[in-house]
Design brief:
This protein is an alpha+beta fold. The protein has six helices and three strands; from the N terminus they run αααβααβαβ. α4 crosses α5 and α4 runs antiparallel to α6. The chain is rod-shaped.
Length: 123
């Protein structure tokens, strides 16, 4: 006996959120696809365009703060720039410190800079 779309929808409606998440992960693994990519590639519900999650971030220093020396040290650590170049980037705020970072890398770098006293944005 084949399941209809209606049967599947009713079964999913009875699941908890965690069970639905696990079902989606299992389907992604079984079929080798990403649900996010399928949503972007296919038509969105109600004809609205699906928003793609940002995967690359630019780290932008908006202000050095009061502890400029500490911020310069962190900029050097993150970028591998020399002292003069790092100081120039910090003095030239707002300035893009690093481009095309993954979400985890960008969050870690932002945390380090904010801990040093800088104001930072991810774009």
């Amino acid at each position: 006996m084949a399941l209809t779309k209606e049967d599947i929808i009713n079964a999913v409606a009875d699941m908890s959120v965690m069970e639905v998440v696990e079902l989606i992960e299992a389907m992604e693994e079984k079929f080798g696809v990403s649900a996010a990519a399928a949503v972007v590639a296919g038509p969105a519900a109600g004809g609205e365009a699906a928003a793609e999650e940002q995967t690359e971030f630019d780290l932008v220093l908006t202000a050095a703060g009061e502890k400029k020396v500490n911020v310069i040290k962190v900029v050097r650590e993150i970028t591998g720039l020399g002292l003069k170049e790092a100081k120039g980037a910090v003095d030239g705020a707002p300035a893009t410190i690093k481009e095309a970072l993954s979400k985890d890398e960008a969050e870690a770098a932002k945390a380090k800079l904010e801990e040093a006293g800088a104001s930072v944005e991810l774009k």
